[in-house]
Amino acid sequence: MSTKAPRQRSSYRCSECGWETAKWVGRCGECQAWGSVAEAGAPTMRAAAGPVSTPAVPIGQVPITESVARSSGVPELDRVLGGGLVPGAAILLAGEPGVGKSTLLLEVAAQTARTRQRTLYVTGEESAAQVRLRADRTGGVHDELFLAAETDLGAVLTHIEEVRPTLLVVDSIQTIGASGIEGVPGGVTQVKEVAAALIRVAKTRNITTVIVGHVTKDGSIAGPRVLEHLVDVVLHFEGERNSRFRMVRAMKNRYGPIDEVGCFDLSSEGIQAVTDPTGLFVEHHTQDVAGTCVAVTMEGRRPLLAEVQALLTPSPLERPRRTVSGVESSRVDMVLAVLQRHARLRITGSDTFVATVGGAKLHDPAADLAIAVAVASSHLGVPAPRGAVAIGEIGLAGELRRVRDLPQRIAEAARLGFKVAVVPRGRPLESERGIPSRRTVDGLRVVEVDDIFSALLTLELTPPL
Fold first, then answer.
1. What is the model's pTM?
2. Of 30, 223, 254, 448, whose CA is between 20 and 30 Å from 233?
3. Is 100 marked within a binding site?
4. Do 356 and 253 reside in the same domain of the chain?
5. Is 191 annotated as a binding residue?
6. Under a CB-based contact definition with an 8 Å cutoff, are residues 227 and 174 in contact?
7. CB within 8 A of 60, min separation 6: which ones?
């Protein structure tokens, strides 16, 4: 009697995240990517023990001198990276087209070359002449800065072998292709293989490697999700096309914090670090103006002051317009509802426009109180007191909630010369780090209130009875 060997069941795997399923589906159940699930290959035999590259040693005997970070020459980038460029680190810099990624990395490459450390800049999107013109404009020409225009992985590895750089910049990963690997450059398979090869060289030769990545229309990094797992640091370069202000955020960092933000000014002369960006987001009025208030938000661990402006006008429409810029429309709607219910402001029949100064984007809930003050000031036609800042998150019951890092926010407002800060009531001020129990902090008068009506009453912005 013959017995048939059991038939092996096929399995399907997502090329983006590695999720497996017993049957084919059009959309990954883990990362929700479309068209990424394909039949997995037959399982291979188990790996046998083999030779080791270096013997295992007690962790206390592992040398760390080779992994000490060095400055990139751009202080704001060092702030985000947690000290600078680490030898052997793989860094992924992503951002929208035209935001200034190539300009920033050319500046980093030039600064590294000025320290007599050899740098290799590989461009796959521009010609060598185009990069040279940008370097002439920004003052980035140096003998230790080598430039290569290549789109083949083998040629890039040959350049690395010949130049032996300390810093390698690849612009961008989607333009480099590997011969012998199926797919076109920028595809899932190609990106994975090219990134793995570059990172392998970076680790074995202690080369700091910075890889430029494209983003999709929703702002996420294009290509397989495994790319973000392969690298050590993931940075996002953000900015509006109509503004020179740029920000670098760390989304992943094995060598430092992920809540730091670097600020830059992009111009035709190149890119420069902005160590004190508050002045970009606060308008200096020559006279008192109704409908403005200054908020203190946190960008990473850095307090940042931004001015919120509001304009309310009687609306002839049945459904008044609400237009926002730089703030979330849902939070503005909530603030307007709370003002209507708990502050006795009749604003339902007004067109409402809320915007920030300088293109700042406020996602911090602590800006709720500043939005409310600006709206109330515009509705009443009464300017808020000059030199006042408002800090606090507003609840649906009209209460003010405590926000994080309040001492740092108050200290930053005091440093910039503001006179009054309206904050939520909470624990006694002496229990906060570095904040004394008195009501004045470095010339700034701190007023604690319980709800939105008390905050407006403190700033003399309540409607007449």
1. 0.76
2. 30
3. yes
4. no
5. no
6. no
7. none
